[in-house]
Structure formats: structure tokens, C-alpha cells
From TrEMBL:
Matches recorded under Pfam families: Ala_racemase_N
CDD domains linked: PLPDE_III_DSD_D-TA_like_2 (cd06813)
Protein name (Swiss-Prot/TrEMBL): D-serine deaminase, pyridoxal phosphate-dependent
Source taxon at top rank: Bacteria
Sequence ranges assigned to domain Alanine racemase N-terminal in this UniProt record: 24-270
Biological classification of the source: Bacteria, Bacillati, Actinomycetota, Actinomycetes, Micromonosporales
Amino acid sequence: MSGTSQRETLDKATAELDPPFAVVDLAAFDANADALVERAGGKPLRVASKSVRCTELLTRVLRRPGWQGVLAYTLAEANWLVRSGVTDDAVVAYPTADRAALRDLAHDDRLRAGVTLMVDSVEQLDLIASVTAETEIRLCIDLDASYRLAGGRVHLGVFRSPVREPGQARTLAETIAKRPGFRLVGIMSYEAQIAGLGDAPPGRRARGLAIRAIQRRSYRELLARRGAAVDAVRAVADLEFVNGGGTGSVRLTGADPSVTEITAGSGLYGPTLFDAYTAWRPTPAAFFAQPVVRRPGPGVVTVLGGGWIASGPTEPSRQPTPWLPRGLKMIGTEGAGEVQTPLRGAAADELRVGDRVWFRHAKAGELCEHVNELHLVEDGAVTAVARTYRGAGHAFL
């Protein structure tokens, strides 16, 4: 669909709404879901809920072939998703210190059967046991997947688990096996330096070449280390799953014989950070609209608000992108503002006060930090309004 026809479709479908609001194009969402399945090479995909944050869309993708289970943001969220029937298989992606949610888990047979906690230390086992006593809790070990150079002085990836080497993974697995109240069922490793780092940054060709070279080396190193770690843990525990990857590495992670399932989520919405990948670029499916409220001068319009900044390093790539009409850009001295955002470009002179500018967010799930609803567009009309939720704490509906 051309930019003009897409803009006309979105404007017409939402003509009765007053910005700001957010929409998801269901045709694009479904196409992205199918493309990710094709890239997974036959291995199931576990949806990362923090990238979606909408139960209706989580349910929609889990009904599609090739998708099963949720990688949840928090334990409170995992408990809620299982109890509400969205899934019966929720792995919590990060260790928890939420004692209230742990008590909830310990006292509910359905939750204990459907929720798996993430651990990477004995200290976390102690905290969990202090709340759950000897009630059997499902556990997954988080294996560090970062790439290290120069004897560890250079760290590429994210700072997650202290469990890195196969021997460390086996030692923790043996500790879990000896302690009552725990059952080790999985291993997860997230190769952020591959899955979450675009290898084609706009206007930075040399950097892109360097990133691709490092990613190739990182993948080879992780292939051997993760395989050895999985073998070491399997000697201790009967694993149900080995999870890896993210939207940016689905095909590569799927080629790892030690991995049994792959995580993906951001690719369903297609945020702008994934425009910087050579392997695959999802179809943009999620947008938010802001109204034009000023025309300061030729070639410039100002929309209300717009400062929906994504988390991560403070740089331009974390700003939202004016998407439709095409040809609008942020003004460097102002960027995306809390109360107003001026935009410059040839398309500005065609816009009038009250018109919309459609934006794309830099990251997927964080769009839902700003809206309570997603308007679902299909066949040129809003067919449903789906509630969103926040991933942290207990802000669920």
C-alpha cells in the first residue's frame, strides 16, 4: 500500500476519533505473524508480551499456527495472563522479587502448572523459597548470551545473567535439583547483540559493516557455548524447552540445534528500530496520531504532544518517526516534545489545523505506555477497540 492510500485508509477509518490515539492494522499484524513463523523454520514461537501489551492481540497471535506460549514481563502479569485464559504457558522473562505475586503463585494450582520463573542465582532461589516454602515452582535458567572480547573487557549485548559458562549452568541446575520445592524445566538465552541491534543503521554504512561482522562472530561463539550449556544442564534435568532469540534473530536462532523455541514480539507491530535490519523488516502495523494545531511558517507545522520517547540509550533513534504524510521530519533543536512537536518538510504546507500526522513508535510495546486503547483497523474500518495494559507492577485490567 502506498503512503497516500495508507494515510487515506487510516484517516477514513478513524474519522470520528480525536487524536491522540493509537491504531493497529490487523492485516499487517497477521502478515508479520506469518512471516515470523516462516523465518522460524518449524520451531514454535513464544510471544513476548511486553512488546504487545494487549490481551486481545496476544490471544489473536496465539491462535495462529506456529505460536505457543508467552514470555511475560513480570510475574504479576504472567499470573494474570494464565488466570484470565490468555495462555496456560507463561515464562517470566526476568527474575522476580514480587512477594505478593509469589504468594499468589504458590497458592494456586493452575498458576503453578502454567507459570515458569526465571533464575540465575542461589540468592533468587532463597527469596522464592522464603515465600513459597516447599510448594513446587517451575524454574528456567537465564544463560548469558552476550559476546565478550579482550578477556571480558569488551561486553557486547545486555547485562543479564551471571551464568555464562556450561559449568556454571550445570552447578546452578544441580543446586536446584537438590532443593525441595523447585523443578527446572527450561533454559533461556537472549542474544541482544544480534536480535536487538539493527545491522543497517541509516546513513552509517561503515558501522553497519562492523556490526554484521561482529554479529557473525558472536553467533558462532554462542552456538558452541549455548549447545554445551544445554548439554550440561540436560545431564541434570529433563528440560521442556530451550528458548532463544528475538524478532531480529529468528532465522539465525532457529538454526541453532540446541534451541527448541524462539521468542518474538516486536516484529508483530513493526516499530522503527526494526527498519535498521537487513535480514527482515516487518510491515509497519502500529501507529499513533497527533493533531496539527499550529502552522508557524512555510514548510513547518506543529502537532500537539508527540514526545513518546522509547527507552534505551538517549539518541535520535529512540524518538518517534512522523510517518504519514511522507516527507515530514523532526526539527533537531526541538525533537519530540512533551507538549508540542514541530515538523518540517514539503508535506507541511498541505496540512491544515485539525489534520492528523501519523507516527510510528521506536519500540513496540512502549506505545501502550501512552494509550489505554488500541483501535484495530481491518478492511478500512475500526472493527474493535482493545484495551492495553502496563507491563510493570499490577496495572492490569
